[in-house]
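Our collaborator T.R. sent over the components below with a one-line note: 'Predict the complex.' Nothing else. No constraints on interfaces, no templates requested, no preferences about which chain binds where. So this is a plain run: every listed entity goes in together, and whatever single assembly comes back becomes the starting point for the next discussion.
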Amino acid sequence: MADFTAVVIERSYVIRKGWTQILRSFDEIRNIYEFAEIEECLPLLPKYHPDLVLYHSTRIHQEIGSYLSGKEIGKIFWVDISPEEHKKEDVPEWADLSLSPLLPREKIRQTLEQIMHDLGGETDQGTHTELSHREITVLKLISRGLTNKEIADKMFISPHTVITHRKNITRKLGIKTVAGLTVYAILNKLVSLEEIDS
Amino acid sequence: MITGKTKMADLIHLNHKLLPVIGRFGISLGFGDSTVNEICREKGIETAFFLEVVNAFHDPDYYPQENLRQFSLQLIVDYLRNTHRFYLDKKIPEIEEMIEAMIRDCYPGKEHIDLIRVFFGNYREELIAHIEREEKTVFPYALMVEEAFLKGSLTGEQLEQIRNRSMKEYQEEHNDIEEKLYDLKNIIIKYLPQPQDVSGCTHILYELFYLEQDINDHSRIEDKVLAPKVEQMEKVLLEQYPLSDG
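Returned assembly:
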């Protein structure tokens, strides 16, 4: 199961609660944080690492961009939730997509489902959690304490590919930390305790 | 929203997760029909502060009051320290004892539970490090800002500190203790070979969910009560002492 964090920034209490309620109905979303103003939210973005931000304002992207530049923060999918009926070309510069709260219920659900799909990459291949051979090799090396660079050298692949494998492993197993992956590897006899201690 | 006129008993009916919170304020059960105001007065607790904590804890969407002088940051810091003690002296040892008991109970997969023990030990070390960082750097910084704010004066050294390292940056430091807890839950739920008697694992999981929730609520008090107040004070101070002075 995917494990997304969403942030809703909306001044109107009623509308904010409405968005939260809808987001909550998606299994893919684990955490939802609510804010009335973007100023309260920006400092916390690097901490929350959201995948999805619902924001409603006509304010320009530079403000957000200049604040976040250089901060350690992954790719965020920005959704403009201004109530105007946007045409496709009217999506503001800072947003990836516009989603008006005035749209009918089915349309809103479909759009959000599409977003979950895009965010999750392969997640809609459902419960497929078998690790591939390559992923198992990477997992073994992670549990022996090797860095991404060392794993890349050993397997003759790029560090970027190692990171992709790691992301897929974490997504499939639902385990994020090295210590957790190590426990998994031992429980499944992929590595022995001696190998880890050495 | 919980107010001074809310009956303490209703507050618990509203959200029983507030039980450990009122415990940290030294309030015990058996309060009859007394209101929050009455009990706070009786126990010598600053009502405004109590309300801010229980509201922030109860409602994820709660926004703190604007009034900076309503109560001292020292109260928040003391409360947060108490919560830290609650984790380290009570919750963590309880969970450790549960894990030890499972190992003792001659469960065939002892070595598996031992992995959980080691993993939880690591988690504990990280939690301790995180708590120490807060208590040794973040809290003293917050109290320093408040002191300067109330005095309305600032030493050169203090000004330098505020300019170099604002509350915002303290908040941004990310750590993976939340992720470790999440992993541990998933390992037990999805991957640990289960013993015949599953009650041990069930108890541990129950405690882990509880701890996770409590730590999240605790962080929310730092993020929504402590940090915004310090940031407002920083702003006032920096306006009084513009950069050209230094």
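Summary for T.R.: Residues 4-125 of chain A form a domain with the Rossmann fold fold (CATH 3.40.50.2300).
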